[in-house]
Design brief:
- The chain contains twelve helices and eight strands.
């Protein structure tokens, strides 16, 4: 591999770019750094990947498909192998999806309804003759071990307990062994937001697959940095990762220019209007704009738009109606509470006058002392009841006939009696 400090290293590339655009290398380096472009000269390490065996077991679960799964494909060697069956829907694509799952750690291509069919999976493969084994002991939870086979046995390269840790283990192995660098792709969401997405081995590995009934010659999507992935995977272009950074930076800048153009068009459709407002109102507008973190123009625009809206009158009328309904319900509750208080007081007085005989003069002092003691207990009980949030009104049924069927045309102010 040529030395990076030589004529084909990053410094030479930076000088060539500066010469072509008529700028200094320092200016070019500043622009590239600001836009996330790294001058990384790296060549992928070519290695041969060869499958050696595949086995998996489990139990079919479903209304129409039940039975034991016991698949074993031993003694695979270099060459072209095929999976055939007498008819469709026998699992050929599933076998290939399990191979992809074991090599990437990403469960894709396996139908959702088969997610709990498999108990254990084992895949053996070699990288330039170095044997490795992927052993998934719990296929549902993606728990297992990546083994490196040596002369006297196996040593654990990595263990995983979830799909994320499985993907991380396989990515660390292949990215290191093949000398690959993470790829950055740029996407624009429906909201217009620019997003940079880093990708590792699972993204690169898409360049190896030819899908059943393929819509694309390679991989699962038509582009998505597929040229860069194939350059790194199969050609070993030295500046492939830098090219990916440049493509992502170009996407970010294009989206930024597009958003600025849209904003300019919106601003060009506006006209200036000078109005005079009271000083107090201007102060209120400024305070509201500060709280909402918007401009004063935005506050005034929203207010005018609400006034000019065709349904603004209906909205105001609906809001006023709701307020009147709320006030009406409050007045009805107050009227009910007043009726209850008056009736209770009247009944108590009538009961007292009808049941309590006059006391003789010699017994009034003792009765007065007993009354004060009982009144003190009454106040204590009343305080505890109110502190608990309970009310005498809550104990009265709402469907008292005398209150439910009150005449609507009463003209006197005397409360009705039950």
């Amino acid at each position: 591999m040529p030395n990076d400090s030589g004529q084909d290293g990053p410094e030479a590339l930076l000088a060539a770019i500066a010469k072509k655009c008529g700028r200094s290398p320092e200016q070019v380096s500043s622009v590239l750094t600001r836009n996330g472009v790294g001058l990384r000269r790296s060549l992928a390490v070519p290695k041969r990947l060869c499958l050696r065996s595949l086995a998996f077991s489990g139990e079919k679960k479903g209304e129409k498909t039940i039975g034991t799964i016991a698949f074993d494909w031993p003694d695979l060697r270099p060459g072209i192998w095929g999976v055939t069956s007498g008819r469709n829907l026998r699992g050929k694509s599933t076998v290939l999806a399990i191979v992809r799952w074991c090599l990437t750690g990403k469960r894709s291509g396996i139908p959702t309804e088969m997610g709990e069919w498999f108990d254990a999976v084992h895949l053996a493969f070699t990288l330039d003759g170095q044997p490795y084994e992927v052993e998934i002991a719990d296929a549902v939870a993606s728990k297992g071990t990546l083994w490196r086979v040596v002369d006297d046995g196996r040593c654990a390269q990595a263990t995983f307990t979830s799909e994320d840790s499985f993907k991380s283990a396989m990515s660390d192995l292949f990215m290191t062994q093949l000398g690959l660098l993470p790829l950055i792709t740029h996407t624009v969401r429906s909201s217009g937001e620019s997003v940079d997405q880093p990708h590792d081995w699972a993204f690169y590995a898409g360049a190896m697959w030819i899908e059943p009934n393929p819509e694309n010659l390679f991989g699962t999507v038509s582009m998505s940095a597929m040229p860069t992935r194939m350059m790194q995977m199969f050609l070993g272009i030295p500046w492939a990762s830098t090219n990916a950074d440049l493509v992502a930076a170009k996407g970010r800048l294009s989206n930024h220019i597009s958003q600025r153009r849209i904003m300019t068009q919106r601003l060009s459709m506006r006209d200036r209007l000078n109005v005079s407002l009271p000083v107090a109102m201007i102060s209120q507008i400024g305070d509201l704009a500060t709280r909402r973190k918007v401009t004063r123009s935005a506050v005034v625009e929203a207010a005018v738009a609400s006034l000019l809206s065709p349904d603004s009158a209906e909205k105001s009328e609906a809001a006023l109606t709701r307020r009147l309904d709320r006030l009406t319900r409050q007045m009805q509750r107050q009227e009910r509470d007043l009726i209850i208080a008056l009736e209770t007081h009247a009944l108590f007085i009538r009961f007292w006058l009808g049941q309590m005989p006059p006391l003789p003069a010699e017994a009034r002092a003792a009765a007065n002392a007993l009354g004060q003691e009982r009144f003190a207990r009454f106040l204590d009980t009343l305080g505890r009841r109110l502190s608990q949030g309970r009310s005498f009104r809550d104990d009265i049924p709402l469907d008292i006939p005398a209150m439910r069927e009150r005449p609507a045309d009463r003209t006197d102010d005397t409360p009705s009696r039950s």
